[in-house]
Amino acid sequence: IQGTGQGLAYRGVKINTLKTQAELRATNALQATIQVKGLAYAGHRIDLQAHAQGPLTRFTLGLDAQWPQSRLSVAGLVSHQTDMWGLQLGKATLTSTPLGNWQLLHPATLQWDNGTGSLSKMAFADTFGARITAKGRYTPAMNQADLGFDLQSLPLDFHTQTEGASLHGFLNAHLQAQCHGVCHVEGHWDFQKTELQWRQAGTPHTLSLQAFTGQLHWLPKDLSLAADLGLANDWGNAQVTLHSPATLALPWHWDTNAPLQGVIKAHLGAPLFAAIPIGSLRIQPQGQGTIDAQVLGSWAHPQWTGTAQLQGLGFFVPQAGLDVHGVDARFVGDGKELRISQLQASSGSGQISGTGIVELQQANDFTLHVTGKNFTALNLPQVEAAVSPDLSISGNRNKINIQGNIHTNRLRILGTDFSGPKPSSDVVFVKNVHKSSGHALGVNVHVTLGNDARVVISGLRARLVGSLAVEMHDGQSPQVDGTLRMVDGHYAIYGHTLTFQRGFILFRGAANQANLDVLAVRTIKSSSSFAVDNTPVEAGVQVTGTLQVPQVALYSKPSMSQTDILSYLVLGTPSSGLTSQDALLSAAAGTLFSASRAAVFGDSLSSSGIDVGVSSNGNATGLAGAMVTLGHYLTPDLYLSVGQSVLGNGTVARLRYRISRHIELQTESGTQNGANIFYRIDF
C-alpha cells in the first residue's frame, strides 16, 4: 500500500503533505512508514515520522515528532494477542528549549487486557533532577481504578509574549486515588522558589511566593480541601478551607447539587495594590485590604457571603491629573447581592462618599449613589475643577446609566495663549478623532457653576455663570444644552483693558459646536473723538462662530474704518496722521486676526521653524498694505512665505533662493506678480 496527500483538512486539522508506505507479507510480517509534514491544529504545528516492522503479534514501533525548538523520540515494542494489546516503551527522549530535556528512566508498559487498562510505573527525569512518575490500573466495567501521580521539583517556566508576564519556580505534588465504585483520593502540593514577573507601564514587578501549600482529602461523602498562600515582602496572605459531603464516583463524576461550605480569609498588603494593573491608573503603594468570606449553597449554585474591606488606598489618574487618597470601602455579601455599605475617597480638600448594591445573579445589575463636596476632579494645566456631585449610577454588564447633578465649587479654565494661527476647519488630527465611549453608556447630568468659576487665558479674565445639561444615549457623542456667561470680565492687550459688554457660550448640541457671542470693548474719552458732542468712543473685538471655528471681527461705536478701530485699540486715538505707528498697528492686526486660529497650534509654529509676522504689500502704506505672513525655510537656501492682507483681499506667495553668498533671487505671485534680485551684505 502506497499513498500520498497534499493540502488535507478535516475538522480543524490540516496536513500539508502526507506519505505512507506499508507492506504485509504472507507470513504476517509488517513493514510500514508514514511521514506527515505540517500537521496543524489550534495554532500548533508539528512534523511526524513513524515506522513499524515485524510480525503483527509483536512488532517494533518508532516515532519521531518535531515542532519549534522541540523534538520527541519514542521507541517501543507492540504486542497483540486475543483481547490483549500492549506497548512496551523502551526509550523516550524529549529535547526542548522551553520544556527542558527529559528522558524515560526505565522501560514501562501500557497494556489493555480483557477489559482492564494498566500502566506500569513510568518515570521521566530531566537533567536537573526533576521527576514525573505515574502508574495506574482502570477497569471500566467494574468501576475500579488505582491511580498514582507524582511531581518532584517540576520546573515552572511559562512566558507570555503578549502580556510580558512570566512564571518561574518549582512544583512538588502527589496524588493517589483508589476507586471501587466510589473513590478515596489523597493529595498535596507545594510550590517552591516561585516568582511571577510582569511589566506595567514599563516598570517591572515581581511577586514572590513565600509559601503555597495545600492538602486534599476526598473520602466517600467527605471532601476536605485546605490551602495556604503566603506572599513575600508584606504583599499579603490567604487561607482557604473547603468542605462538602460530595462523593467522587466512577466514571469520574460527583453530585453538583451537594452542599458546599468554605471559608476564605485574606490580607492584602500595600505593595500588592501598587502592582495590580488597572488600565492607566497608577495605584499608590499604600493602604491595606482584608477579606473574610464564606461560600455556601451547592457546587452548581454557590452563594458568597462575608465582608471585604479596603483602607487607606490611593491612586493617580494621569488623564485628569487626579490624586485620590484615603480610599476606604466596605463590602458585605449575603449570597444574593453585594452591598457597598461604605465608600469614601479624598482629593484636594474635598471628599466623596457612596453606597451601592451589586446583584450576584446572572446579569449582575448594580446601583451606586455618589455624593461629595469640593472634590478635586480635574487638576490639569488647562483646567482645574473641584465639584460636589450627586450622582446615581446603575447598569449591568451590558449598559451603564449615569444621572444626577454636579455643582462646581471651584473652576479654573486656564487654556493656552490665543496667539498663533490655527488650521482650517477641514484639517483632521488623527490622534484627536473621537472614539466612542461605548455602545451602552447613557448620561443625563445637570452641571451648575458655583460662585468661583473663572476663565484665565492669556490676557482674558472673567467669571463664568450658568448651567449645562449633558445627555448621552447608547454611547453616542454627548449632547450639551445650556448657556455659560462671562461676567466681570476683561481682556488685556497692548497695555490696555477691553471690558466685556457681553460674553455668551451657547450650547445646543455637540460641545465643540457651541456658539460664541462675545463683545469686548475699550472706551476712550478724548477730544479727538469722532463724535461731535465729544461722547466716548468704543472700540473693540467681536467674536462669533463656534468654539471649534471662532470668527473675530473689529467693532466700534460710532462706526469707523478698521484702521481707526485698531488705532483706538492700540493707541487710544484715530490713525489720521500717525504714519509712524504703522508698524505697531500692523502687528496689532496680525495678533487680532490670528486669534481665531490659535487654539490648536499654540506655540508649535515657532518651535517647528515657521515664522509668523507682518509685512508690506506693494506700494501701499499703513494698514492698507499690511499683510499677515507665514514663512519657512524649505532648505538652508530656499525660503517660502505666504501672506494675506489684513484689511483687503490681497494674497501673495514669495519664493526666495540664495544663489551665492551675496546674491538672492525672489519671485512673487498673487495679487501682483514680479521678480527681484537682491545683493546681500552681512555684517
Mind explaining what this structure looks like?
- By secondary structure, this protein is mainly beta.
- It has a 36-stranded mixed sheet that branches. A six-stranded antiparallel sheet has the order 37-38-39-40-41-42.
- Strand 13 and strand 14 form a beta hairpin.
- Helix 2 (562-571) packs across helix 3.
- The longest helix is centred in the last third of the chain and has 13 residues, at 582-594.
- The protein is elongated.
Number of distinct helices: 4
Structural class: mainly beta
Q: Please indicate the percent range of residues in DSSP E strands (runs of 2 or more).
A: over 45%
What is Rg?
A: 40 Å
The separation of the N and C termini measures 97 Å
Low-confidence stretches: 416-422, 431-439, 527-532, 593-608
Let me know the largest β-sheet: 36 strands, mixed
The chain-level mean pLDDT equals: 83
Gross geometry: elongated
**E-strand count:** 42
Which range best describes the helical content: under 10%, 10-25%, 25-40%, 40-55%, 55-70% or over 70%?
under 10%
Set out the fold topology.
Elements: E1 2-10, E2 13-24, E3 29-41, E4 44-55, E5 58-67, E6 70-81, E7 84-96, E8 100-104, E9 108-113, E10 116-126, E11 131-139, E12 144-160, E13 165-180, E14 182-200, E15 203-219, E16 222-231, E17 236-244, E18 261-268, H1 270-275, E19 282-283, E20 288-297, E21 302-317, E22 322-334, E23 337-347, E24 350-359, E25 366-373, E26 375-379, E27 383-395, E28 400-413, E29 441-449, E30 453-457, E31 460-472, E32 479-493, E33 496-510, E34 515-524, E35 537-545, E36 550-557, H2 562-571, H3 582-594, H4 604-607, E37 611-616, E38 626-635, E39 638-645, E40 651-658, E41 663-670, E42 674-679
Parallel strand pairs: 28-29, 28-30
Antiparallel strand pairs: 1-2, 2-3, 3-4, 4-5, 5-6, 6-7, 7-8, 7-9, 8-10, 9-10, 10-11, 11-12, 12-13, 13-14, 14-15, 15-16, 16-17, 17-18, 18-20, 19-21, 20-21, 21-22, 22-23, 23-24, 24-25, 25-27, 26-27, 27-28, 29-31, 30-31, 31-32, 32-33, 33-34, 34-35, 35-36, 37-38, 38-39, 39-40, 40-41, 41-42
